């Protein structure tokens, strides 16, 4: 290839790369005289831009303002919204669709439209949508409830498929390790604890430890049983945490070695343990919103503890207490003094850093019950550490 030909090809490549950059900036900036790109969209790009403009454009109409300029608004009708939901599912990946749906519900006030079955069938199910549906549960007409349950069940089944196997494997291992025996079989020996237990038998001349006493793992299925109480704040800000906690509660309840109790609360306390075989029933048994009385909820949980040394209490709350603060802290201190492992999760979700009451979190930390946010992926490790009574893997 000649030098001239090489330069021509390079120029075409540069123009193509530059054009793609302009196209991307145009999609980000949204058009209009101020974007400075001079790029005109067509075809699929124009349709994607219209879908974005309907949500993020900042106006009030449903059409386009002018060439290349976004307009905003989906109108108040279900047909407009249903069409828009179909468009974004066509043009964007599922993770982006979920973000746009959540923004549409928050920015454009579309919650009321979710009470229509046709609308629910058009949306992309995710944890945040489930939280919105649960908050609308009491206002939901009968014609919509079955569709809503189907949407919630789809999300729950996806979460169980993702989380259940690892949770069971992690906690089964923790239960096995927590059952120490003194005459283990060779492959059940806990060498770390055995060496530490026999350091006094070190022989310098042979540079070895004589293991007079073996420490090993038991088998938890029959010999060990732990009790776990999930105490979940169902105030509106905890919606995603309620969804994840309900799924984990069902997984824990399916393990014979763990007796699981699930309690939800606002200013009242509801025990949903008898519904744990179906997390969808658990979720529809909650009532998102309202106040918070952590002290009352912990009083109920405390009354259900029969074997403190074998019990883990997990409080999932942003700690904005509407009850008696000092009594709440006294209950936590009493449970810990009795041998209960107490875990405080400010959130159980992937939503990032939560808002929470810093003063209450610091007070719990001073009692030896540090409060921290936990992702669903980390939760099995947190529970395993609590069951084994070792330091929690805080992020």
| Portion in helices | 40-55%
What is the gyration radius calculated from CA atoms? Answer: 28 Å
Query: H/E element string?
Result: HHHHHHHEHEEEHEHEEHHEHEHEH
Q: Measure the end-to-end span.
A: 57 Å
Alpha-beta classification: alpha/beta
Mean pLDDT value: 80
Total number of helices? 15
The total count of strands amounts to 10
Could you say which overall geometry the principal axes of the C-alpha atoms support? globular
Structural description of this entry:
The chain has 395 residues and is an alpha/beta fold. It is 49% helix and 11% strand. The strands form three sheets. The chain has a six-stranded mixed sheet with strand order 7-6-5-8-9-10. A two-stranded antiparallel ribbon has the order 1-4. Helix 14 links the parallel strand 9 and strand 10.
How does the SSE layout of this entry go?
Elements: H1 3-29, H2 43-56, H3 78-91, H4 94-107, H5 117-122, H6 127-135, H7 142-178, E1 180-181, H8 191-197, E2 202-203, E3 208-209, E4 216-217, H9 220-223, E5 226-233, H10 239-253, E6 258-265, E7 269-271, H11 279-284, H12 294-303, E8 311-316, H13 325-337, E9 341-348, H14 358-366, E10 371-374, H15 379-388
Parallel strand pairs: 5-6, 5-8, 8-9, 9-10
Antiparallel strand pairs: 1-4, 2-3, 6-7
Quick gist of this model?
With 395 residues, the chain is of the alpha/beta class. It has 15 helices and ten strands. The strands form three sheets. Strands 7-6-5-8-9-10 form a six-stranded mixed β-sheet. The chain has a two-stranded antiparallel sheet with strand order 1-4.
